[in-house]
Amino acid sequence: MKTTTAVVRGDFQYILTSPEIFLTNKNSVDLFQSSSFQERLVGVLIDEAHCVQNWGIKFRKEYAKLGELCSFLPSHVCMMALTATASASSQKEIIKLLGMTKPHIIIRCPNKPNIIYYLEEKTQDIDVVFKPLVEEVKVKGTRMNTVIIFYWTFNDCSAIYYYFKDLLKESITDPQGYSNVPKF
């Protein structure tokens, strides 16, 4: 209750919360609708706005309900939605779901010169695909550039993890909190 009182008084410059707290907690809803809070409110920022569309349908339904915020917002309050992964059609859907009218859209190329995307279809043997990377890790160690390997299934991730662990032995450390990664 101390925090709620401090928020009502305007003690905080920024408030970070989740859609679930913001839309389903009665105290949060009452606070958001209070005139003292709304007078101080300048803007609402939704980071990773693509989650409104991607998660809001089935996974975290409150994301899709973030558009309800517009019905609570005074006219002086701005809403900003940020995403780096929305196609043009996704942008339209996000704008609709958030209830935004006449948004100002800024598009910047997310390409970074220090990031390289390399796709390898999962048709080859794991050794053919990853052996060169293992050898590079052995030579460069911690001086090697960061590499992110993405697979869709936990089984594939587990197989890749144990492939590296078996070949790199004590040079590899378990992720913090995951010393017993299941092996499939």
From TrEMBL:
SUPFAM superfamilies membership: P-loop containing nucleoside triphosphate hydrolases
Stretches of the chain forming a coiled coil according to its record: none
Domain Helicase ATP-binding: 1-104
UniProt entry keywords in alphabetical sequence: DNA-binding, Isomerase, Nucleus
InterPro entries on file: DEAD/DEAH_box_helicase_dom (IPR011545), Helicase_ATP-bd (IPR014001), P-loop_NTPase (IPR027417)
GO CC annotation: chromosome; cytoplasm; nucleus
One Pfam family this sequence matches: DEAD
GO biological process: double-strand break repair via homologous recombination
GO function term, MF aspect, one: four-way junction helicase activity
Family in the record: Belongs to the helicase family. RecQ subfamily.
Protein name: Helicase ATP-binding domain-containing protein
Organism name: Amphimedon queenslandica (Sponge)
